[in-house]
Amino acid sequence: MSLRSRFTRRTRIALIGIAAGGVAAAIVVVPSLADSGSSEPAAVAARADYGPEPEADSKLVTQVGEVSTMAMATLSPDTMINRARTWLTANNGGPVPYSMERVWKDGYRQDCSGFVSMALGLGKPGLNTVGLADSKSGVTTRLSSVSQLKKGDLLIDYRTDDGDFRHVVIFEKWANSAHSAYYAYEQRGTYGTTYRQLKYGIGSDNYDPFRPVKLGGGTGGGGGGQVPSPSVSWPVLKSGSQGADVKSAQQLLTAQGYSVAADGSFGPNTRAAVVKFQKSRSLAADGVIGPNTWAKLIKVVKSGSSGSAVKAAQTQLNVYNYGLAVDGGFGTKTKSAVVAFQKNHKLEVDGVVGPNTWRTLLGSR
């Protein structure tokens, strides 16, 4: 096996101890997309509280044998995702800090597996990654391939044969039609709770796909009638977010009169535009695009419409492989794509991109 292969396969943690006045230094190599979207591993300086996760016999870990006492009622994927989102802002508007030795105010351990246990509503303080992947716990079942991933599934590195550094992330949706990256929630050293694009499990590494056994249906779109299922929720975008949803938000901001480059990267200029837009609509000016901001930001578009709001709709439709030219013109091809999307998601089939269709376009992946 080549040195390069060995590093992409598993050299996830490279610890370099430096005895200098009793201070140790460490380098963590994480095989994920960097926040900039790069596919290269990112070297991150380790925090003092980043290291091997608690073992199963730790008082900070719920025992696999105690799973029967867990609150494992069936929940929808979107309920799980919404629970995960709460940790993005739970710390006075910021993310819950990472720790394997502390529990958050809700009683869950502040590391990756404690975070996932919280999102699933498992017993406190939460299982570790080995427990989440262990068939004896009855919490998850392993999928045969990453192509089967759906909202709320997990990517888990639970191996113990190459060190105790393990990790788990929550899959939300694919970042592109090629399924070469996806959006996920994770609790990680230094940063705490984050939402970003990842490639864990895609290619040669130690991440395997799992599905929580108590995760119900309703991954988006359906629900019957003219309204999307309650489980279809608006995405939450903030500084550092990337992808098609960000590009659509930027195009909608432009349609509302705020000049922003539609580059799919939520940087300082996009945040400044969001804050200005929120102030103009008497919204909480936090620079985060959540449900209330989306409701004001979207515009109804239909046959004959043109401009950046149409580009936003075309951008979203292309995530579902409709292959439209993002030209800002709502012509026959765009209407046909909207009609097909509405039929597929059991919405009112009128060819108009209104609030319900917008919410389903943005929230059902």
How would you briefly describe this protein structure?
By secondary structure, the protein is an alpha+beta fold. It contains 10 helices and 9 strands. The chain is 27% helix and 12% strand.
Q: Which terms would index this structure?
A:
365 residues, alpha+beta, 10 helices, 9 strands, globular
Topology:
Blueprint: H1 3-9, E1 13-14, E2 27-30, E3 42-45, H2 77-89, H3 112-120, H4 129-133, E4 140-142, E5 154-157, E6 167-174, E7 182-188, E8 192-198, E9 208-212, H5 244-255, H6 268-280, H7 291-297, H8 308-319, H9 332-344, H10 355-363
Helix pairs in contact: 2-3, 5-8
Describe this protein's structure.
The chain is 27% helix and 12% strand. It has ten helices and nine strands. It has a six-stranded antiparallel beta sheet with strand order 4-9-5-6-7-8. A three-stranded antiparallel beta sheet has the order 1-2-3, with no helix packed on it. Strand 6 and strand 7 (182-188) form a beta hairpin.
Poorly predicted residue ranges: 1-51, 66-72, 218-230
Helix and strand element order: HEEEHHHEEEEEEHHHHHH
Average per-residue pLDDT, rounded, comes to 78
Largest sheet: 6 strands, antiparallel
Report Rg: 21 Å
- Cα distance, first to last residue? 37 Å
Summed up, the helix count is 10
Structural class of the helices, strands and pairings? alpha+beta
Strand content: 5-15%
* Helix share bin: 25-40%
Overall strand count:
9
